[in-house]
């Protein structure tokens, strides 16, 4: 039961970041989308996560750093304790506070395969594949900011989340994602505040090692 919940949580994280770049589709042309995705192959930054649920006496807060790249996605919690979750196309890695490393093979898991296929479609610049997973409920933008609300189409994903709200800044140089709210059900939600984003062409040696089994 614990492992099942953990898997669902990891899939939720994965699809949050898939939806991050769907905003670009709504704002620019397909050619500009492809250019944007290849221009920034690696995005890193810091996050603050706050989870609210009916069965919690108070919201749970954690913080750390994240990496979004063509190799996969990595969350590295720093507070209240250190731990890491790394998601690639073939497997997931969990590093416990005591340093114990667990690799979860996704080759025989249909849900994981679906998530991986969607991740692959993101990097290929396929809007149609992405829209097979999410419906854009609403979208708004002005000269300085943007906001989007997404609903999952896939029943499997819908079991883990009901709705995602994303928002960020817009400038002449780049578009950033600064805030996410993931509504899992009527009583459970998680918010992510992202900051200190940096963009580069490739992972460092240490970052590459993080994604390795």
Q: What's the order of the H and E elements?
A: HHHEEEEEEHHEEHEEEH
Summed up, the helix count is 7
- Poorly predicted regions are 1-7, 18-38, 121-125
**What's the gyration radius in Å?**
16 Å
Query: Quick one: biggest sheet?
Result: 11 strands, antiparallel
* CATH fold-level name: outer membrane lipoprotein receptor (LolB), chain A
| Helix residue percentage | 25-40%
Beta-strand content bin: 35-45%
Cα separation of the termini = 25 Å
Structural class: alpha+beta
CATH class: Mainly Beta
Q: Any idea what the CATH superfamily is called?
A: Lipoprotein localisation LolA/LolB/LppX
Order of neighbouring strands in the sheet with most strands: 6-5-4-3-2-1-11-10-9-8-7
Shape: globular
- The total number of structural domains is 1
CATH architecture: Clam
Total beta strand runs: 11
| Mean pLDDT score | 75
Based on the model shown, name its key terms.
alpha+beta, 39% strand, disordered N terminus, outer membrane lipoprotein receptor (LolB), chain A, 7 helices
């Amino acid at each position: 039961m614990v492992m099942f919940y953990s898997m669902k949580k990891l899939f939720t994280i994965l699809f949050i970041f898939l939806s991050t770049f769907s905003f670009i589709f709504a704002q620019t042309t397909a050619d500009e989308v492809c250019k944007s995705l290849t221009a920034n192959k690696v995005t890193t930054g810091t996050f603050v996560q706050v989870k609210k649920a009916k069965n919690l006496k108070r919201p749970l807060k954690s913080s750390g750093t994240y990496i979004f790249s063509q190799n996969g996605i990595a969350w590295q919690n720093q507070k209240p304790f250190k731990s890491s979750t790394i998601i690639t196309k073939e497997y997931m890695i969990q590093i416990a506070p005591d340093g114990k490393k667990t690799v979860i093979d996704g080759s025989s898991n249909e849900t994981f395969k679906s998530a991986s296929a969607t991740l692959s479609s993101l990097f290929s610049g396929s809007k149609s594949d992405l829209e097979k997973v999410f419906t854009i409920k609403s979208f708004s933008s002005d000269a300085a900011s943007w906001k989007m609300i997404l609903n999952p189409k896939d029943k499997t994903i819908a079991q883990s989340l009901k709705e995602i709200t994303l928002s960020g800044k817009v400038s002449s140089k780049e578009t950033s994602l600064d805030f996410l709210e993931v509504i899992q059900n009527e009583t459970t939600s998680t918010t992510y505040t992202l900051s200190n984003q940096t963009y580069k062409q490739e992972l460092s040696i240490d970052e590459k090692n993080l994604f390795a089994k």
